[in-house]
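Minutes, project check-in
Item: structure for the 105-residue chain
Input as provided by the requester:
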Amino acid sequence: MVSRSSKSSAPLTFDLPRSLIDKIQAIRKGRKLKTASEVVRLAIEQFDFDSCEPDHEPHQQISVRITAVQRAMMKRYSKSKDSSVGELLRLALEGLPVNPPRTRR
């Protein structure tokens, strides 16, 4: 078992969803740990990295043109939803069906 408080530690910064930050805080309280770092170190110690298979999808940047009205709308929604324009675009694209809906005659 690795020591939980190491003098040769280095800061590590990364983005986590808010739900995972909340879980870290809940684990801290539930296990009576002093810091989020202790929770992360514990998770690293106990996780089986050998058998895990990360689910990651490759990303690629694309450049597209949208109207000025659409750009303003996306910025407005980005602020009101506290999200990035990119995240909102992903949601819009994921919700768009591949084939147009059939029209009834």
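Outcome recorded: The CA atoms of residues 28 and 35 lie 7 Å apart.
No further action items on this chain.
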